[in-house]
């Protein structure tokens, strides 16, 4: 992807200190509220900014006019609810956020500006069973590569949001038992990556980042209650409740892959029996299809066989979809999400996978819950987790508090 040139706008340190008790102080405080809304939510109309900040539309209009004159924001004509409106876009101050997604066989890095433009992204392969040290080395080298390609210095990077396919203890930033990357268990990712990258690091489960990406860059930016489910070698979910990521007590949430589907099923890597992963992960699908195949089938092969109408592949996917739908129903009965978004390497299947998931959801949920919960494929594909990593950095309160003024 071609990098777009960054703006020359810079942070003015003096602007951080509004003079108390004056009209100018009030204006600066209101400007901070608008900037915070734009940093956390991306481009918005003036009416949306008014709702987000609690300011009147007239106040927002006046402040936006001043900010546009100073080069802090750009306004672009748009339509909202069929009416003409102005979309307000925060100008990039030269700083960027990095999102890093590390999987079993890949690492992906994205760079995003403060205006939520994607400036550059690249991916690289990782060997199966790679160590934390090897994953860190490849991720750091790839970050250096994309920064060099975009002509951005490392000092301009506000931080890196890093996604790992496994549970993360938020108290320590440590990967705990149950991760798809067993070689990473016990590693303090926050300290290890922070020391190597030399910047603030934010560690998240990859499904959490996928969920965050859906409400930041996806088509569900106005959804308050959303479940993102990633189906791959492992199966996990990220939950958006009342507009924010849900972490539970210590951060171990959304482990749907270890929901019991069959009490007498296969023993799972977690030690339990009959978990969802044993019947619906891509690893299980590959194993089943390879039994009767003349040539080895990989994840992409599952998609190709199903799209080509292969009966064995369609049956395996249908069985997996029904099991996934049953697990989704258990969560839907509990939290009543508006939307369930499916992610992972099988998104290319579309309705071939979505239809059995919907059937399973309707069969095992309370009728009104199943009928009012929509199920979609993620439009972000394999970029979702890395985009979510960048969104974590952009949403940090310290970044949202920095007003931008021309140098």
From TrEMBL:
Residues 1-10 have a biased composition (Polar residues). PROSITE patterns: ROK. Pfam families: MarR_2 (PF12802), ROK (PF00480). Residues 33-84 form the HTH marR-type domain. GO terms for molecular function: DNA-binding transcription factor activity. Residues 1-23 are annotated as: Disordered. InterPro entries: ArsR-like_HTH, ATPase_NBD, HTH_MarR-typ, ROK, ROK_cs, WH-like_DNA-bd_sf, WH_DNA-bd_sf. Belongs to the ROK (NagC/XylR) family. This is ROK family transcriptional regulator. It comes from Arthrobacter crusticola.
